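ingest -> fold -> write
write: protein_1
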Amino acid sequence: MNQNGSTLGRLGSIAKTILLLIYALFALFPLLWMLILSFKPDNEMFTTTFFFTPTLSNFQAVFSKSDFLGTLWNNLVVSCLAVALSLIVGVPAAYALGRFDFKGKEDIAFTFLSFKFAPEILVIIPLYLIYQQLHLIDSIVGLIWVYQLISLPLLIWILRGFFEDLSKDMEAAAQLDGYSWWQVFFKMLLPLVKPGLVAAGLLCFIFCWNSFTFALLLGGGHTQTSTVSMTQFLASDTVHYGWVAAAALICALPEIILALLIQKHLVRGLSFGAVKG
């Protein structure tokens, strides 16, 4: 009986592992296919699938035929500064929505979230007219400002849940011990919500990094981002699939590397369990 049970348990574990591997292959296949296309020469793009002569010509074309490094730098600067500004503004807002009860709190929170629901194409015309009046078109400041529409609502809603999970008794006990509100906030609360800060910051960075509509219509030659720069490889008469795949792979690398570096912070820490206990 025990032997049969252990055999069934091993078979179940093997089946679960196989299913997880199949799902992982399915989920990662777009990245794998993009990697394959980026190393394929043009003359083998449609004639072979997995067996071909690898080449670096697609990457050479991406960097030689455009200022792709410059557009990557623009994208990095705008995304990082937009996320940093969102953290400065969004952390106090999330704390207020998560810790205090006041009239209209849920309405304010839903208003923030509704900014995320609105399609970018819906607000681009009024934003374009405002930017024209303020002379912010094709400027780094203008792109950072508009990227707040992408990152700030998401950040506030994520961090609000983390602040709500913290016990108010710990905060009150620290103030009774003589700590000021600022000391409690920076030395106790922020370290406890560090996993939330990292997760929210990474998600906001990904959304900002991948933004296309705002960068296309509100940017320009001086502030062109890599997501917009890739469109130059899509000609009216032909598409250089290898060049597009190489550019897309290069654009995806910062997000992949950043996610791998901070993956241990993307899950809530043990401190949340300690607080709830």
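write: protein_2
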Amino acid sequence: MRRRRFLLFAAILVGCDFPVTDRIAQMNEATFWEIIDRVKGYGGEKAHSHRLARELERLSNDQLVQFYVFYQAAFDRANLGDLWAAGALLNGGHGSDDGFEYFRNWLIAQGSSIFRLAVSAPDSLAVVDVELEDGLPTAEWESFGRIPSEVFDKRGGASLYRVAEPLLKTATSAKAPLFEWSAYSDETMAVRLPKLWAKYGEIKVRRDRSVAASAKEYKSRVQRQEFEIPRLGNVKAGVVLYHKSFGAGTVIGVDTDGQHFFATISFADVNRPGFGGGSNS
């Protein structure tokens, strides 16, 4: 009782406009989702992040650490193959590792009902409206997941992750099984997520074709480029070079990893990849 009276007095003293209750004083999964559900509303990621920050600023350090632990538990719980595929479809076919993290932030922000249903039935997300960006659906919220750490950092001291690490290691919440994203072909997505595929499948196919065409055009342009390899001179496809150990060789291919060029050179009918260098930036 003395603890509750002190919290109530502190809330009045600083002019807080939220009720101090025992349920708030002791953070649990239910109060975690109560906060998330209060944050849900109008606007996109920026508006939701702002409202979440205001909610978390009202918590004590201990409560904020507990909130973070429950957030990570929900984040891990959503690490499912079918949810990865759902996220890819809800983001116009984009399904990178970082993108899946940002998608799970978005999913948590949709509130307890949508989150829990999506974990058990990912195709249920077909009824959720998502924002459009340049004509493509977008359900990736990067900054929303950083709000707990940002609020904690403003208070000084160690990072939120470092303080919460012992609790994260001893958390009893079961982690989702590992999955292989490459197993999700278009055909697999259409079978496992029929409603989402019907809504977004065509967008994904168009995007995949556009990305493939861009990659092909880029590779063709690289093949036509000329660059310099130390001790070998200027290089482009079709050029004959002379190497002190292998003799005359013909450049039969040129490629790049985005930072360096590489040439495949045929010396006496033996292809020797790996002669390369120089940045294309």
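write: annotation protein_2
The beta strands are 131-133, 136-138, 227-229, 233-235, 240-243, 247-256, 260-267, 270-279.
Residues 194-224 form the longest helix (31 residues).
pipeline exit 0
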